[in-house]
Every structure is written in C-alpha cells, then in structure tokens.
Design goal:
Length: 195
C-alpha cells in the first residue's frame, strides 16, 4: 500500500531520493526502547499489553525481536513487538502506542519504598536504618546501598541492607548519624495525621 508520495510527476530525481512511502499491513510492529538494565530479564515471546494513545482499550502483542545494542546517550535498547490484528485494524500506522511489559521473576530480594532512598550528587545512594543503643533506644544510621530493579513505588536493594532492618521513609532528609529517633508505624502515623 502506498502511504505517501514524495515527488510530483515529471520531477527530476537523484539516486537515493525517496519516491514513495510503502506500508506492508502484514508486517506491522511497534518499537519500544527499554532501559539497559531490562536486557538481562527480558526474553523473546514475552507478552506485552498495548494501548493506543488516548484510548482505554488494551491489545495484546508479542515481543518478537530484541536488538541488544545500547543507545549510549539514552542508555536504552530496542525491542520490537508484533501487535494483534485487532490493533492493526484500529490504529493509525505510525501513531504512538504505550506498552506494558509484564515480567515474571522467580527471584526474591529486599525492597524498600522509593521515598526511603537519598541520592547524592556524587552518585551515592543511601538509606537510613534504625539501630538500638545499649539502653535499647533507637537511633539512625546511614547505609550506602546499591539498587536494582524498581516496580510499584518499590526499589530493590542489592547490597547495603539486610532482611529485618527497619528503614526510615519519612523525614530521612534531615537525619544526622546516631540521631535519636522515635519509631512510628504506618497505622499510628496515619492515625496521628488525622487527629
């Protein structure tokens, strides 16, 4: 199918000039750029949920090609998704789509809320952990951490935290090392806020 004509009848052409834009409706795909970190957990035949811009309707698609070459400025790589025929029939070729890549992981790890992280200009990432002194009084201690994946407002902590550590989520920006703290759980905090 001819989608666009780039020259007029009788116009002079040079080698390499584009004359027509052709569209093969049997070979429609959507390109997405994913973060480099996703390259180790994504694979072919992954199901993708597709949405046409401005529509609530969702369509399915299959990841068919992974181009494992990084785009250095954006730190992303290209994946190609083949949409179901219903989307091809409704969408305008070249119109924007959004894609939701659902990746099932068998791995387990430690996660903290995104608000618990402190990012420093030199690239360090830290969290404040609650420890107890000899009198069992709680105090704050900063830990430098390495982060992994993020999802649903949570960040995976790869190193620098151990299971069972109590992490400061609110007010962490103003803490100082060994500063005494008062522990308030989420239920108490919401009850106090509503009083």
């Amino acid at each position: 199918m001819v989608a666009q004509r780039h020259v007029a009848a009788g116009e002079w052409l040079n080698p390499g000039d584009t004359v027509y834009q052709l569209v093969d409706l049997e070979q429609v795909y959507a390109d997405f750029y994913l973060p480099e970190k996703a390259s180790r957990i994504i694979n072919n035949d992954l199901s993708v949920e597709l949405h046409i811009a401005g529509s609530d309707q969702s369509f399915s698609g299959k990841l068919t090609e992974i181009v494992r070459v990084a785009d250095i400025p954006s730190r992303t790589f290209l994946v190609r998704v083949q949409p179901e025929q219903a989307l091809v029939e409704q969408a305008i070729i070249g119109a924007p789509l959004t894609g939701l890549f659902r990746i099932e992981l068998a791995e387990q790890g430690l996660v903290v809320p995104r608000d618990a992280l402190l990012r420093y200009p030199d690239g360090r990432i830290a969290i404040w952990v609650i420890n107890r002194d000899q009198e069992n009084s709680p105090y704050a201690e900063q830990h430098i951490v390495e982060i992994g994946r993020s999802f649903d407002g949570l960040i995976e902590i790869v190193s620098g935290l151990k299971e069972g550590d109590i992490v400061v989520v609110k007010g962490n920006e103003a803490l100082q090392p060994e500063q005494p703290v008062e522990i308030i759980d989420a239920d108490e905090a919401s009850a106090e806020a509503s009083n």
